[in-house]
Design a protein that fits this description.
Layout: H1 2-15, E1 21-22, E2 28-30, E3 36-38, E4 40-42, E5 49-56, E6 80-82, E7 92-96, E8 99-103, E9 110-116, E10 125-131, E11 158-162, H2 167-171, H3 183-198, E12 204-214, H4 216-224, H5 228-231, E13 236-240, H6 253-263, H7 274-281, H8 286-292, H9 301-304, H10 325-331, E14 339-342
Parallel strand pairs: 3-6, 10-11, 10-12, 12-13, 13-14
Antiparallel strand pairs: 1-2, 2-3, 4-5, 5-9, 7-8, 9-11
Length: 349
Amino acid sequence: MWPSMKVVLVSAFFCISAIQCKSRNGDLVVCPRGGCILGTVLPGHQRPYEAFLGVPYAKPPVGKLRFRSPLPVEPWYPTIWNGTFSRSTCIQKIYASWLTVSTGEEDCLYMNIYRPMRKKTRKHLPVIVLITGGGFSIGTGNNVDFSPDYIMNRKDIILVVLQHRLGVFGYLCSGTTASQGNFGLKDQQLALEWIRDNIETFGGNSQLVTLLGQGSGCAAVMMHMMNAKSSLLFHQVILQSGSLAHWALLKNPKSHFKRQARYAGIVDYKSLTTKEIVSKLRKVDAEILRESSDRFKFWHFDHLVNYRPCIEKETWKDPFLTVNPYVAWANGTYYPKPILITLHCYFRF
């Protein structure tokens, strides 16, 4: 095994500064900052395309990092990251008719990157970054549920599909600095920073990034347009079947937080500070936290989206949303971008 290991390490070393390369056994390898990634070729609908699956952009948000802003991923050089398969979806519970399915893991901050079969060209392609919908509580970026086959019939774009924290893991807001909330939005922002710094390595144009939101992803995109830091990371937007509807903002986070503590089994929550409650919630089993969402009122539409973004204070550390998004949008106090608004239709034949 030692000689083959030396071949892999040497291949990684010579790939670090290259846009793309082939390892000695012919596998596709791309080397952004932090380490090289082994890609794969998928058959596609009309033509094959290249895929780099399960690319990490943040440290796993587990343990002490639960209910905290995401941290950049640790470099994995000289190891070559295996990007030939999607990683786990973010932890969630899916409701479909009479059937409910619990799935996912907390360690889920990955993205899938798709590009046309590369030819010998230096042209950098425009980039589409997809933020999926699901009421801030469900959604996946894997290549089965969000297959890129049809869009990759085109030869002139790169598609990136993000995963970000959902439900209580992504949107626990205490109304204090103990758990500021908006972690899912902050995950998206960190992913956009990673894309800005690395997408040219994949042949993408970091100066032509379209942010595409679907469903609750539309509300997320609109909130990114209100964030000065985020606004520098994309250049135009597509809003597909969603908006800043009444369900897109948590209006009473302190009350919601106390109920969350009670539903998760924190028996003495009434006598504890928010910091103490969050400390206990970090130790609660992830499955119990996920199941606790079922105890919120469900069949009223406003409560169908139980976990949502919240307004943070400007004095807090790295706040994401510090203004009422409805007021900001109505007053035009956001960072305007070229925008396309579309309807997301489903057809059955």
